[in-house]
Design goal:
The complex is a heterodimer of chains A (152) and B (518). With 152 residues, chain A is an alpha/beta fold. Chain A is built from 4 helices and 5 strands, in the order βαβαββαβα. Chain A has one domain: HybD-like (Rossmann fold, 3-Layer(aba) Sandwich). The chains are: A alpha/beta (152), B alpha+beta (518). The interface between A and B is large, with 66 and 71 residues.
Chain lengths: 152, 518
């Protein structure tokens, strides 16, 4: 049986401090040896831009910051059902978040059901190209968790 | 006076907020407020100038290619190669920018605007076999309506069947958007945040199979624009004709021009572009663009500093406690005048420049829908201009891609100067975008951006002149102040783009116990 095709997607804005955590994890993983059935995707500032292309994968792992109410630096692993939708009203296209994007794409193409989220509680979201000291060492930790996950 | 506040999503870090003050049912005053502090410029200081092209693309999720274009033009000019870019590079840059126009316009009309006019709940009555509509139906039946049902609904005028057809088009548009991203990646290397457009040209080579793959996909998008998008905009226009009278902006228009048609004129204000540069005051004659007349004021913005300062001299000193301030957006003005930017501005400027294609298309549009040209200054005028824009750009892209020379050069060498200044101006889908740079000791000393929604969403200036969106809201009759869909339709017609990319996953507090903490 051929191996599952897996996408690891980093979301975030590297100009806004901890907001860029997901992209930093992808950049870190690009320097590591990862199984050849795994694609690394830097979705940058807008998940919706790459959502449609996830149709090509069996399994998706999304890395982003997450507000779960625990201390900064807390790493969460969760599923789509745990995320709040933010589309009560959209004035700007920016209002399409991860859930809205997945919901939309599912209407027109087969999207993977197996989607896992790694979220990290941010400390500082402000203009800066650096992660906070709290989050900096966690890039490696999350990346290692993901490597374990894709090898399973 | 009654106050209506539309503050779409406070959970996201900062957004556009609209406040309208009503006397009876009429909006007497309006305030547009950008609630996210922007000072990306500060990140760029002391960096290698070439980083600007990489970093400014990350300012935005919807239009990274436009920031890429403006910053690259800016660096070309600072590095003194703006008149030396090879034709191959000029064309591929146009194709990258054009791909961004197509995805942005299609997305805006179908996925943000259409559901103001199309009743998606009509799909609940659908009994046919279309797989897309069937999945929308089952989606609605599950009661999970996000992102389909706007909070402000009402005034739907299409019959059930038309609504269903339009929802089908909404789904088809998702495929067109994917195709637009794919063609951007052909010459841009990747999407989002393309990797190939650089000062001096482009690092991609125009191979024969890239050209073919590009054209094949582009033709599918063109077909969609011609047979679906344009007719749908016309259907909305003829069904909601009153929206040609609602949402009148300042009636002054500014365009930086877009899509370079020549490579050897170093002056971006005068070089030949598909959409010409210029300013039109009051829907009459064209004035040449003079970028020295652009100023920014901070009278009602949370910044310290002087009013009426040229962007290249502007400073970013935040002061969140400033009295009388209500926005993080500044107020750009042209010669002291409030100007609208965006597709409508682009088309008005091109119309008065005498461009024959644009003139014919506009004249045909206004005679088909039986309106006069002044009615284009409206909610529907903006949507119509956006659709015409998509068609014109897509058709031109099909010509340009065949002008590429697989054997020709696409890059020219340059040197970063010890000291220098640059300017990059271009119209993106949402209008005039300007980047300014000053270089000292081969590093960025100063970088400023003035983005399109800064023009359209600007607060009042020191002379008490309201920004374009504020002007468009003032005077509007709101049928039901508890459901102010008129105001939302006006705001959306400007296609505002402000949040500038801070999105976190908001994990449902009730389910927090299910999260596994690693």
């Amino acid at each position: 049986m051929s191996k599952k095709r897996i996408a690891v997607v980093g979301v975030g804005n590297i100009l806004m401090g901890d907001e860029g955590f997901g992209v930093r994890v992808i950049q870190y993983l690009k320097e590591k040896s990862i199984p050849n059935n795994v694609s690394l995707i830097d979705a940058g500032t807008w998940f919706f831009n790459i959502a449609g292309s996830l149709t090509d994968f069996d399994r998706v792992i999304v890395v982003d910051i997450a507000k779960g109410g625990k201390d900064p630096g807390t790493i969460y692993r969760f599923y789509e059902k745990d995320i709040k939708s933010n589309s009560e009203e959209s004035i700007s296209l920016h209002d399409f978040g991860v859930i809205e994007s997945l919901n939309l794409e599912r209407l027109v193409r087969k999207m993977p059901d197996d989607i896992i989220f790694y979220g990290i509680e941010p400390e500082r979201i402000e203009l800066s190209m650096d992660l906070s000291d709290k989050l900096k060492p966690l890039v490696q930790k999350v990346a290692e968790e993901i490597i374990k996950e894709v090898k399973n | 006076m009654k106050k209506i506040s539309i503050d779409p999503i406070t959970r996201i870090e900062g957004h556009m907020k609209i406040e309208a003050f009503l006397d009876g049912n009429i909006v007497k005053d309006a305030r547009c407020s950008g609630t996210l502090y922007r000072g990306f410029e500060t990140i760029l200081r002391y960096r290698d100038p070439r980083d600007a092209q990489r970093i400014t693309q990350r300012v935005c999720g919807v239009c990274p290619a436009v920031h890429c274009t403006a910053s690259t033009l800016n660096l070309d000019s600072a590095f003194a190669v703006s008149d030396k870019i090879p034709d191959n590079a000029r064309i591929m840059r146009n194709l990258v920018l054009g791909s961004n126009y197509l995805q942005s316009h299609i997305l805006h009309f179908y996925h943000l605007t259409a559901l103001d006019y199309v009743d998606i709940t009509a799909v609940a009555k659908y009994n046919g076999n279309d797989p897309g509509l069937k999945s929308v139906k089952s989606f609605i039946e599950r009661g999970n309506l996000a992102p389909f049902v706007p909070r402000y609904e009402g005034d739907y005028r299409f019959d059930t069947e038309t609504n269903q057809v339009l929802v089908k088009h909404y789904l088809m548009a998702l495929e067109m958007r994917k195709l637009s991203h794919e063609i951007l990646a052909i010459f841009g290397g990747k999407m989002p945040h393309n990797a190939t457009v650089v000062p001096g040209g482009i690092t991609e080579r125009p191979t024969v199979d890239k050209i073919t793959g590009f054209l094949w996909r582009l033709n599918k998008i063109r077909d969609f624009i011609n047979t679906i998008y344009l007719p749908d905009v016309l259907a909305v226009a003829t069904t909601y004709p009153d929206y040609f009278k609602i949402g009148q902006g300042p009636n002054n228009y500014l365009c930086y021009g877009a899509f370079d048609l020549e490579s050897d004129n170093p002056d971006y204000s005068t070089r030949k572009r598909l959409f010409p540069q210029g300013v039109v005051m009051g829907m009459k004659e064209l004035q040449p663009l003079d970028t020295d007349k652009i100023t920014e004021s901070v009278k009602h913005s949370w910044y310290d500093g002087e009013d009426s300062v040229h962007p290249s001299k502007g400073v970013t000193i935040p002061n969140p406690r400033k009295e009388d301030a209500y926005s993080w957006i500044r107020s750009p003005r042209y010669n002291g005048t409030v100007c609208e930017v965006g597709p409508l501005a682009r088309w008005v400027v091109a119309y008065f420049s005498g461009d024959s294609y644009v003139k014919n298309a506009v004249d045909k549009l206004i005679s088909d829908i039986k309106i006069d040209i002044s009615s284009l200054n409206s909610v529907l005028g903006r949507h119509a201009a956006r659709a015409l824009d998509a068609k014109y750009v897509a058709d031109k892209m099909a010509e340009w891609v065949l002008q590429l020379d697989p054997d020709g050069p696409a890059f020219v060498e340059y040197e970063i100067p010890e000291e220098g200044e640059g300017m990059g101006i271009v119209d993106g889908p949402r209008g005039a975008l300007g980047h300014w740079i000053r270089i000292k000791e081969k590093k960025i000393d100063k970088y400023q951006l003035v983005v399109p929604t800064t023009w359209n969403g600007s607060p009042m200036d020191e002379n008490g002149q309201h920004g374009p969106m504020e002007q468009a809201l003032i005077g509007t009759e709101v049928r039901d102040p508890s459901n102010p869909f008129e105001l939302v339709r006006i705001a959306r017609s400007y296609d505002p783009c402000l949040a500038c990319s801070v999105h976190s996953l908001d994990v449902n507090g009730n389910n927090i116990g299910e999260l596994k903490v690693v």
